[in-house]
Amino acid sequence: MKPEGLSVVLTGAAGGIGSALAAVLARAGARVLLVGRRGAPLAALAESLGAGVRTLRVQALAADITTAAGRATIRDIAAARGCNALINCAALPGFGRFADADDGEIDAVLRTNLVAPIQLTLALLPQLQAQRQARVLNIGSATGRLGVPGFAVYGAGKFGLRGFSEALRRELADTPVRVQYLGARATRTGFNDRRADEFNRRTRTAVDAPEVVARAALALLRSGGAEKFVGFPESVAVRLNGLAPTLLDRAFAAHRAALRPAASGASIDPSTTESQHV
Ligand SMILES: NC(=O)c1ccc[n+]([C@@H]2O[C@H](COP(=O)([O-])OP(=O)(O)OC[C@H]3O[C@@H](n4cnc5c(N)ncnc54)[C@H](OP(=O)(O)O)[C@@H]3O)[C@@H](O)[C@H]2O)c1
């Protein structure tokens, strides 16, 4: 689809990747509904993208995707705007040793990163199916196809989102709705806290600028491709892992070491309650 023909609902719009994506979309001529829970950063982003002068091209909407009321509001405004694309980008981080996780964090991560995007897709489906062409683009992660120590719960959500994307893509293959999955690798945003940054450094994980992910997302929307993983070697590793998962089991000693509190040094406090991720 050409960007100028897109009318997008973008969740997580004020985040690091979301705001880069909103800018790329707006510059390319797409109409964008910016969704997040906090109104102030969304309004500032809308303003910076010219909402004041180009009314309705860019619009901010404060709504929580984990609530039925939030999703109903998004659905109604999306319909009024003639939306033909949903980008599920909102997520919570979830980095750390699984032994340190708690039930509340597990619930919140899976509800926000997996259940809510599925429910929002369902809420918007009639609107999308009524279009000549439409897109559902789910923003995932390399950890959604390659299990990485430190990302057991977060990765479970992204694996789930990828499975949902694949099944729904096949289910809707003879409809106007194309379902897509973009697997980002580590990206420089507020999503990663100090511990996650340190983990990436110790494991020599490459970290992209959010604009790299935004450009990849726009290219995917244009091409209609099924899925794309950003970056080398991640894009190869996820495919290899798909073919022979146990082959890579021995490749994560550095990741395990970086998770160990004793080995991680004074800069990593295992008692922290901050939640993180990829
Ligand atoms: N950064 C990375 O290293 C990385 C790597 C791979 C994949 N990803 C994926 O890329 C996407 C964007 O990540 P990011 O780095 O841009 O994260 P981010 O900067 O933390 O942005 C996430 C956004 O999601 C919004 N959000 C969270 N819960 C929400 C809810 N219940 N309802 C509505 N909005 C909600 C937040 O805004 P409010 O708090 O205002 O709601 C926030 O702006 C995520 O799907 C993430 O999993 C990120």
Q: How would you portray this structure in words?
A:
The structure is a single chain. The chain has 278 residues and is α/β, with parallel strands linked by helices. The chain has helices spanning 16-27, 39-48, 68-80, 103-129, 152-171, 194-202, 210-223, 234-243, 253-259, and strands at 7-11, 31-36, 58-62, 85-88, 134-141, 177-184, 227-229. It has a single domain, classed as Rossmann fold, CATH 3.40.50. Strands 3-2-1-4-5-6-7 form a 7-stranded parallel β-sheet, sandwiched between helices. β4 (85-88), α4 and β5 form a beta-alpha-beta unit. α3 (68-80) runs parallel beside α4. The chain is globular, with a radius of gyration of 18 Å. The chain starts with 6 loop residues before the first strand and ends in a 19-residue tail after the last helix.
Summarize the SSE layout with pairings:
Blueprint (H helix, E strand, L loop, with lengths): L6 E5 L4 H12 L3 E6 L2 H10 L9 E5 L5 H13 L4 E4 L14 H27 L4 E8 L10 H20 L5 E8 L9 H9 L7 H14 L3 E3 L4 H10 L9 H7 L19
Parallel strand pairs: 1-2, 1-4, 2-3, 4-5, 5-6, 6-7
The structure holds NADP nicotinamide-adenine-dinucleotide phosphate (NAP).
Give a quick rundown of the structure.
The chain has 278 residues and is an alpha/beta fold. The protein has 9 helices and 7 strands; from the N terminus they run βαβαβαβαβαβααβαα.
Tell me the β content: 5-15%
In total, the number of domains comes to 1
Q: Specify the overall morphology.
A: globular
The pLDDT mean sits at 93
Distance between the termini: 29 Å
The profile of the biggest β sheet is: 7 strands, parallel
Radius of gyration: 18 Å
pLDDT under 50 segments (min length 5)? 263-278
Secondary-structure class = alpha/beta
Strand order of the largest sheet: 3-2-1-4-5-6-7
Order of helices and strands: EHEHEHEHEHEHHEHH
SS elements, strand count = 7
Ligand names: NADP nicotinamide-adenine-dinucleotide phosphate
CATH classification, class level: Alpha Beta
Under the CATH scheme, which architecture would be assigned?
3-Layer(aba) Sandwich
